[in-house]
Design a protein that fits this description.
Elements: H1 8-39, E1 54-55, E2 65-66, H2 69-77, H3 81-97, H4 99-107, H5 112-121, H6 130-141, H7 146-160, H8 162-173, E3 177-180, E4 190-193, H9 196-212, H10 220-223, H11 229-250, E5 265-267, E6 285-288, E7 292-295, H12 299-302
Antiparallel strand pairs: 1-2, 3-4, 5-6, 6-7
Length: 303
């Protein structure tokens, strides 16, 4: 394989070969880590002293390993011990808890990163329950696109252990929240964890309001950032849905504006043009107390 192909044909051939080598490298790394785990020698007489101890990096049913294995793997790969622990856990979870996926990975029919993703989603399942998901995923990955497997995976996990799924749902219910961030890059982000009925209702409300908002052309600076027409359409749709949330908030009490609240804003007086009335020519930062900082020329939009 030429490192610097000169023709389209060579480049395509190199791409195919490079992809095959990458797949082989994934398998080789996983098998090598597995062998290191199995052959690593631990001084059992000193195991329970302060020198080295056995530890379990993987989920239920995985083998325990000497804690210094992570140092060996990290040094070989040039990564931190913490990152090496993650690599070891991935191998253990796939090999010991998903043997069918492990064999499929060795045969080259399943990518190792796919097997790791499945194993990661299943860490809450017991070693017995996870075998059901292992078989289904291995079969599905040989017939379905990866995206469809990911879509079906949550239902397989629930079916494998309904009691565990119920307990997880109860814990998640305690974490319902609405978190509004401070201003960053001139924007505010919102993170929500709602019950399903409220979440679906909110999505429907936003979609309905966005459909009735007037369409607006993308500003030139935004259109330049769009990759193509489809990307521009996506940006416009997201902008309308975001604007719909603002409209929903302002009309929540049956009126066009919410009750007036006080905002304390700090700006540099030397940056205020003498002839500017709308604030669009302000320069420098504006600090909104308790909310963060944004460009001063964006204050008219806020106020």
């Amino acid at each position: 394989m030429e490192v610097l192909p000169r023709t389209l044909t060579q480049a395509l051939a190199n791409l195919t070969e490079a992809d095959a080598l990458a797949r082989m490298a994934e398998v080789a790394q996983a098998v090598s880590i597995s062998t290191i785990i199995d052959t690593y020698q631990l001084d059992e007489e000193r195991t329970y002293e302060t020198i080295e101890q056995l530890t379990r990096y993987g989920a239920d049913g995985t083998a325990s390993v000497g804690e210094f294995v992570a140092l060996e793997v990290g040094a070989a790969l040039g990564i931190s011990p913490g990152s090496a622990i993650g690599r070891i856990a991935d191998v253990l979870n796939v090999r010991d808890r998903h043997p069918v996926l492990w064999e499929a990975m060795l045969a080259g029919t399943v990518r190792f990163h796919q097997a790791c993703r499945v194993a990661s989603e299943c860490v809450g399942l017991s070693a017995d329950a996870v075998t059901q998901v292992d078989r289904k995923c291995a079969q599905a990955l040989g017939q379905w696109p990866w995206a469809r497997v990911l879509k079906e995976l949550p239902s397989w996990i629930i079916a494998a252990d309904p009691a565990s799924a119920t307990a997880k749902e109860v814990r998640a219910r305690k974490e319902r929240k609405v978190h509004i961030t401070e201003i960053k890059d001139g924007q505010i982000e919102a993170f929500l964890r709602l019950n399903p009925a409220d979440g679906i209702a909110l999505s429907d409300a936003i979609t309905g309001i966005a459909a009735h908002l007037p369409e607006q052309d993308l500003p030139p600076e935004m259109r330049e950032l769009a990759c193509n027409d489809d990307d521009a359409t996506r940006i416009q749709l997201n902008a309308r849905r975001a604007a719909a949330i603002g409209h929903l908030a302002r009309t929540a009490l049956g009126q066009d504006t919410l009750p007036v609240r006080q905002l304390v804003i700090t700006i540099d007086a030397t940056k205020i043009p003498a002839t500017d009335h709308d604030g669009s020519h302000l320069t420098g930062p504006a600090r909104i107390h308790h909310w963060g900082t944004l460009l001063a020329n964006r204050l008219p939009e806020l106020l």
